[in-house]
Amino acid sequence: MSYDRCVRCGSCLKICPIFDAMGEEQYSPRGKTYLLQIMDQIEQDPEAAKEFRRLLFMCTMCGRCKETCSSDVDLLAIWHEQRGKSIREHPDEFAYLKPLQEALENVQNIYGLDPEDRAMFWLDELEDEIPGLADKVYEPGKKAEVMVFIGCLMSFRSSQLDVLRALLTTLWKSGTDYLVMGAEEFCCGHPLYLIGNDEGAIELRKHNKAVIEDAGAKKVITCCPGCLIQLKQYHDLGDIEALHHTQFFDMMYDELPTYKAEKPFAYHDPCELHRILEIKKEPRSLMDKMHVDYRDIEPTCCGGGGLLRITDPNLSDIIIQMRAASQHLKDTTVLTCCPSCREQLLSNELKTRDIIELVSEIIEEVGE
Amino acid sequence: MKIRDYVIGANASMYYRLNFKKIKGVYYPKSEQELIDIVKIAREKGYGVTPKGGGSGLSGACTGGDRERIMVSSLRMNRVLTISKDQKYVDVQPGATPDEINAMLEPMGMKFWVAPSSRDIATVGGILSTDGGGNDTWRNGTMRDNTLRVRMVLYDGSILTVDWSGVKCENKKIEKALNSKGMTVHDVAGSHGTLGFITEIRVRINPIPKHTLSGGVAHYDDLNELGDVLAKMINEKCSIWYGEAIAEAHPDVRGDMKPPLLILEVPEENTCDLKGITGYKPISKEKLQQYKDTRIKLPKRNPNEGMQVALFEGYGFHGTSLRKMQDCVNEINDLLRSHDLEPFAKYGHGPSKWYLGDNSPAYGIVLHSREIRPPEKSGPEVFEAVKDIVALCKKLGVTPKPEHKWPFSDEVKNARLSEIRQALGEGFNEFLLDSKCYDVLASMV
Ligand SMILES: Cc1cc2nc3c(=O)[nH]c(=O)nc-3n(C[C@H](O)[C@H](O)[C@H](O)COP(=O)(O)OP(=O)(O)OC[C@H]3O[C@@H](n4cnc5c(N)ncnc54)[C@H](O)[C@@H]3O)c2cc1C
After folding, report:
1. Hey, what domains does chain B have and what are their CATH numbers?
2. pLDDT digits over B318-327, tens only?
3. In sequence order, what are the residues at sequence separation of 6 or more whose Cβ sits closer than 8 angstroms to the Cβ of residue A1?
4. pLDDT tens-digit profile of A150-182?
5. Do A66 and A107 belong to one domain?
6. Residues 42-81 of B with CB under 8 A from A
7. A41–B100 CB contact, under 8 Å
8. CB contact under 8 A, B12 and A8
9. With a cut of 0.85, is the ipTM above it?
10. What is the span of the domain harbouring residue A104?
């Protein structure tokens, strides 16, 4: 087992956002791997074993522990595997995750809403602003170069509408031949993946793959790093290239007009994007092309990853509040490029914008 | 039991399989007052107290052995309390790491110059309690050389302040007894949590100099030659800012390095003198960084097959044993193999300095060591090798775990600690000074 390779050096303690927030060893990656190493002793104490299982879900899966580990322990794989094992063997302890799993099974989105609403909700809002938008919704037989995978968060949350508007406007203005999947977009499976349920995601992925292939797309783009992990690594898309929207637009634009802002921004690297997918260059390159004045902030999690908002919303709030304080975010607009980070920032009353909003704005200005 | 009572056993040593039933409480105080209240609980119930810092120590001392005890972590006491740039000191809580302290100091152009490879997790309380050092100990000394004053809470709940001239204590009887024994910072250094809980340390800081450093590598035919070179460097008091030797390393982890070799970083004006002594060849900044990275990760790396273990983490070669380093290492490796442990890597700070049990300084190399663990051997069987190594070190004139990380066999230091404990109370980390502590350690492997 790879957790046996952990030498318990402790380098993963201080960089872990959960340990940082809670301050006790059981919340740290070393603490959890240590507990696995002595699991024979823990299992003799059912209450402690139960507590351990709960601890596994107090994690943002940000991957900073894995990145720091010099002993080559794949900590993310361990958390993934152990979460799955816990839910399989002790489903009663995770009843609160059932609605999520059922929603994905029944209506293929995390909110349990009617699949038809996926495109409806924002289409109503944006149809008048973006000419021809209604025609951009996939139906069998429609073809396009680019398929846009919008993701559950951006499909259903009104807080994401500005980003969606910017994305679709930029696609329109740039003359991109694209489609959105509409009601045919199923959840990418990432939430199931995060709870170690690999089986449950298979059908969702199969469906998405069939739709993307049917549209003859050469590229599929998404704003959501979690969806991108799934599209890139688990959808088996063959030659179809899965890209983050910052990658797509960075490739599209060699140069962009200067974006003028009154105050410098702070750039928050989404963990799943920069640490897990290793996409660090393109968001910065796009910002640089617009001569955006920004500062990098410490690359730690916002607290929104790993389903922590569901498994422990208080802890998730503490993490973003600590981040806001330590990185002085209160009076700054935080630039990012992940719907989940955006939710997390907004719900804690921090100002945030997606990089695509700046791109869209600058293009519109020039157009005018 | 709560999971926090188990997880407190997490530490970097191979002594990690604890008898958890003996742990009667785990605490993470934020302040000295909270700590005093915690110690009171222990005292009233007759439990021992074991302090724990980052748990990066490699002797198992932060486990507390098998006593009925409470465990107190300093991880929540990690604030920098005062910074005096003019007077060149900072007061810090015991749970602060060198990295945390330096993150505050570096923007001011100042630095706390104690740099163990574990500086991202090792706490100043733990580093003083093991008298740790790093690759610049040769120049900057060990932790005790950088400690001006220590404040600790004793088992009776009173506060003791120790500096280089003596002690002050709320309990005047204790103060008098300790001053009559001549207690100073020397005694707290390497005391492994046996005296009290350190709550505050005043450490020395110094400016970050502006001069340019130049890096280089020197290769040797064997470790005797490397030992000779180190002895010369020590005699000549060479100005070395970073000195690390890689004596041997398994092919899985050594990259393109060809040990034995010495990685050095020196001020540019000193490179000429040093070339004559060490035969070192300059390398680019990037290459130097790559070598340093490989070195700092060595203690944590695993072979492609199997698992490494820090069986006996360090050897202090000095005097004759330094000049005969290869012969000594051969004997150590033969011994390891006779216990089915495959030598995996040996590397360490050199030239370096450490203190012997009688507080006299020794100069040489602190050679760390990792082995590949035989999966089929039981803990107590593996521990037999440790006992044999300690005996072999004595025969060879090698200091076992020189950064005072093997407190159990240091008779002089232990006698002194026992003497002091008679005056200030014996409730802290008792197992360490027990004649049966080897049995306890063996049970935890
Ligand atoms: C990867 C790695 C690299 C290392 N490199 C080095 C190195 O370069 N140089 C070096 O010297 N060491 C090194 N070490 C060993 C280790 O980091 C040191 O021994 C360090 O000083 C331990 O500090 P800690 O805070 O982790 O203490 P712990 O391991 O938690 O405790 C060590 C001892 O200190 C006592 N203690 C801790 N805090 C207090 C307190 N507040 N009051 C009283 N007693 C206390 C404990 O009871 C215990 O006896 C390394 C270890 C690892 C895992």
Report:
1. 3-75 (3.30.43.10), 80-207 (3.30.465.10), 213-400 (3.40.462.40)
2. 999 999 999 9
3. A36
4. 999 999 999 999 999 999 999 999 999 999 999
5. no
6. 54-56, 73, 75-76
7. no
8. yes
9. yes
10. 100-252
